[in-house]
Amino acid sequence: MRRIAGLFLGLLLLAAPALAQSRVSPAAPTPSSPYRSPFANWAAVVVAGDWHAHSDGPTEAFDNARRDVSLTLADLGFARDAIRQYSVRPERYPAVRPGKTDLGVIHAGLRKLAARNTAGCLFYISSHGAPEGVVLDEGILPPHLLAAVINDACPGRPSIVVISACFSGVFVAPLQKSNRMILTAARSDRASFGCSADDKYPYFDDCFLSSAPLAPDFAALGRAVQTCVARKERDTGAQPPSEPQLWIGADLRPLLPLYTLSHPPPKPTARPPARLKRPAPKR
After folding, report:
1. I need a surface site. Which of 24, 100, 141, 222 has the fewest CB within 10 A?
2. Please, what are the domains in the chain?
3. pTM of model > 0.90
4. How far apart are CA 150 and CA 152, in angstroms?
């Protein structure tokens, strides 16, 4: 696990004043015919916070998660032009053209997206973690600073925050708001798994991606991810259990089932070509 001293990150907190917690409940979605996703007007950012494996060698696990979580969000009903990706090494992915993983850049990007997509915000990061926060390139993003960024960019709106990192449970209490859902990959005192050089995804991201196609809403998705991670850790002998954390604010909890997730229709199974029957021989 890489623990990197924070650099200039505390400066942003001075520019982003703490906002009073809003008690305004999110409006229930009103799908129009034939169907409009409740998340069609949400802003979403998906961040790969590091590119090192736990051995300090390179890994694609975090960028694989960044790429495929973004595609999955689009399948779930988020507008593709309202999803912005960020990578520590954006030059490696010219087809996607992610932004640079830099807190100032991410903050500005979320604010810009949220100004155009005003119904809600989603923040997802996959990275290494430490008891002080989550690795963000060459620094540590602490919980209070992430809270300030989201509060500033998305004030008074429903929001969903997903943090895939070791010790990510430290974010739960500082991020809590009545109209927010928080899902983390581990307890505040536990590591998470799947960050080696040959892992396609961290365990938590793998479970998020595999559980999303069957989940009716984000609350159910969070519970499914918890179950999936526990099963995957048992199957692989990963110890001690990471115990992903799920917290939902009181105002958002009864409304989340109304924010239904879209699911693309299953691809038709290719059938082998029909065999032609030979005519019976004449006698």
Report:
1. 24
2. 43-258 (3.40.50.1460)
3. no
4. 5
pLDDT tens digits, 5-31: 344 444 344 343 433 333 344 444 444
Which tokens go with 231?
């099963």
CA–CA distance, 53 with 197 (Å, rounded to integer): 5
3 state SS of 270: coil
Beta bridge partners of 58: 52
Q: How far is CA 24 from the centre of its chain?
A: 24
In this structure, are residues 229 and 242 in contact, taking their beta carbons and an 8 Å threshold? yes
Read off the amino acid at residue 66.
R
Contact present, 219 and 257 (Cβ < 8 Å):
yes
Distant-in-sequence, close-in-space partners of 235: CB < 8 Å, separation ≥ 6: none
What does the alpha-carbon distance between residue 184 and residue 172 come to, in Å, rounded to a whole number? Answer: 8
Taking residue 224's Cβ as centre, other Cβ atoms within 10 Å add up to 17
Alpha-carbon dihedral angle through residues 37, 49, 141, 102, given to the nearest 10 degrees? -90
